[in-house]
Design goal:
By secondary structure, this protein is mainly alpha-helical. About 75% of the residues lie in helices and about 0% in strands. It has helices at about 1-15, 20-35, 40-50, 70, 75-95, 100-110, 120-135, 145-165.
Length: about 170
């Protein structure tokens, strides 16, 4: 009986969000503001991502030949930013269902195999998103809020990398 319980505990641990109930609350609370501006947040995140890492723009076929000053106006940037923010929205919605969300992220990682995606690119995206969220949330962006969002995005990155490497 002890062995069965142990193996279930190990399985559960692998599919649990690494956020405390208080951190989940902070993410949900701040998401209410982010959600209103999610398309803008997505675009600003990508613009910051490319501003800090201009060499990454060439990794996106749809952005490769777009001058940096024109990038903000492209439908391709809007579309990709919208898809990224949908994944973030899915994360917030699934804070109590890590198992299903892990499967979604695993598949998302697999779909990115066609691109030369490396874990460091996702880390850079996390930095860009956190700066964008801080700019948007201002006084609501506390140390605790930052920690909660960073843990959530780290979970997203970890699970996507698992799919990417499968």
């Amino acid at each position: 009986m002890g062995c069965g319980a142990s193996s279930n505990h190990t399985k559960d641990k692998a599919t649990v969000f690494p956020l405390t109930p208080a951190q989940k609350y902070l993410v949900r609370e701040t998401w209410e503001t982010v959600e209103i501006h999610k398309n803008s947040v997505g675009k600003k995140t990508f613009l910051k991502f490319f501003e800090k890492n201009p060499e990454y723009q060439r990794l996106f076929p749809e952005f490769r030949d777009v001058p940096p000053g024109e990038l903000e106006k492209t439908n391709a940037l809007y579309g990709h930013a919208k898809r990224v923010m949908k994944a973030v929205e899915n994360a917030v919605s699934a804070l109590d269902d890590a198992e299903s969300f892990s499967a979604y992220l695993d598949e998302l990682g697999r779909r990115h195999k066609t691109r030369p995606l490396k874990p460091t690119y996702l880390d850079s995206m996390q930095v860009a998103l956190m700066v964008t969220l801080q700019d948007l949330l201002q006084s609501s962006w506390t140390e605790e809020t930052a920690e909660a969002w960073n843990k959530l995005f780290h979970f997203i990155v970890e699970k996507m990398i698992k799919g990417l490497q499968s």
